[in-house]
Amino acid sequence: MSREKSETSSRSRSRTASASGDLVSDIYDMVRKEITTGALRVGDRVTEVDLAERFGVSRTPVRDAVSRLEADGLLTNEPRRGLVVTVLSHQQVVELYFMREILEGASARLAAQSASDIELSMLEELSNKEAQSLGDIGALVEINRNFHRLMMLAAHNRYLLRSLSQLTLTMSLLPSLLDKGDRAQSAAEEHRAIVKALLARDREGAEEAARKHIRSSQQHRMLFSLDARAED
């Protein structure tokens, strides 16, 4: 084979591998989005055949995407049931919130120190928008997600961002409870308290406000879980 043909063949294989990798990432993102939005609920059974048919692809990229989803803890292979959307135990939820309080507290503290004025202005804008959207749960869920994501970025610490991103990925297995009780109102007030401390560049105040917010969220979830079990 000539050098020119060899290089052409190599570039072709590279493009094919790249396209395959993109397809795996696309399938991963689509399944992850379905889990995050609740289209796929915890405990739902998932099969490679079904995913391949729904997304109109072969099983090979689906298999690779499923392996990534399992590695990230979003899918679990259960005996006799097969592949299901991971169901977190009570202890796992407690551990998640424990770490979330520490990491989000650190995120708020660093954001008070390092966030740009534009980032703080965007957080304030999200908080204001949240207060005006209390009747729209869909909008609130999106605002809440963006608020926490922006605060993570505003901390300007790549290692904290990596840890929080992984934690947020696992948290996506838990359904939003903003439509339960008065959680939407209290969450909006807690976000406002965080923003107030951030705008004042009050590191200790921002950290405490963020920690209080996460503790409040955990208490609401545990209370809701107890109520749900009482109805069974």
Automatic annotation (TrEMBL):
State a single Gene Ontology molecular function. Answer: DNA-binding transcription factor activity
Xref: SUPFAM superfamilies: GntR ligand-binding domain-like, Winged helix' DNA-binding domain
Give the signal sequence positions. Answer: none
Q: Which InterPro entries match?
A: AsnC-type_HTH_dom, GntR_C, TF_FadR/GntR_C, Tscrpt_reg_HTH_GntR, WH-like_DNA-bd_sf, WH_DNA-bd_sf
Q: Which UniProt keywords apply?
A: DNA-binding, Plasmid, Transcription, Transcription regulation
Question: Where's the HTH gntR-type domain?
Answer: 21-88
Q: Which Pfam families match?
A: FCD, GntR
Name of protein: GntR family transcriptional regulator
Q: Which organism is it from?
A: Paracoccus yeei
